[in-house]
Input
Amino acid sequence: MKKIKYYYNTHTLRYEKLVTPFRVKLLRIFGFISAALVTSALIIWAYTNFFPSALDKESELKYEIVRDNYNTLAAKTKTLQQQMAELEKRDNEVYRSIFEANPLSDSARTKSIEKKKEIAKINLIKNDDLGDEIAKTLDNITARVAYQFESYNGIEKLIRNQETKIASIPAIQPVSNKQLTRIASGFGMRIHPIYGIAKMHSGIDFTAPRGTPIYATGDGVVTTAGGGTGTGNHVIINHGYGYETEYMHMVRVKAGAGQRVKRGEVIGWVGSTGASTAPHLHYEVHINGNAVDPVYFFFNDLNAEQYDRVLKIAATGSAKSFD
Ligand SMILES: [Zn+2]
Output
């Protein structure tokens, strides 16, 4: 309820109602509105200047997340790049040298990268420097991976060729020799058992009972299989890559000329046919037509210690060969 105020009028000497003139009322209202407006303006000004708006805050948060993601991506691409460099190094230093291929030069890799750059276009995140940097790194890695892939394809081919070569080269003893007691005479100058004079012995003699199986020492094609005056019943295998092996004095030949044989396949049996004094296998290895010491080709079925013993036996073995 509105309070009614009275005042004492000295002119009329009476108490009279106090009436606020309309002008004064208006002034008061105007003053109040002005004050309110100024305060609001001050608050808005302060708020916009000293506090970020809700929209600003949201985009700032988003930017922070994006920047975090970029940093993670950048770290990941850096790791990838390091791993790629490690792969390339291994490719050059290990794989390619094992298979006697020349290492790929870094300039060849870079050239390939320049070429690939035109093809591989990563435009998705190129709007700022950070994205640009990652896009460039990814370009680089993509190109390097593609180039490395080509290199591995080449190496794979080399491995396949090498596998055939490794299977072809004579690499085992032609008769079972677990106790290493069968080598009777090694490669080199020996007294000939029949002529009694020093003569070049161009193979190794393995003593073994008549009928002991004789194995092909590497994959190849039988070029000769049959009898002969000095050699007796014998087999010659062409292994390719310049390698040939000969097996002499067999009691019986199993392989036939033109036959393809695998390492370890039985090609005949030990005997004493031809110029021979007792049952034994005379075994020769030829490289490009020259007889070499077969002892260097027994590495596949001997461990290091056994191989060492075989080398000694072949060197000091009986001065007389069975021929
Ligand atoms: Zn011999």
Observations:
- The two ends are 144 Å apart (CA to CA).
- The chain has five helices and 14 strands.
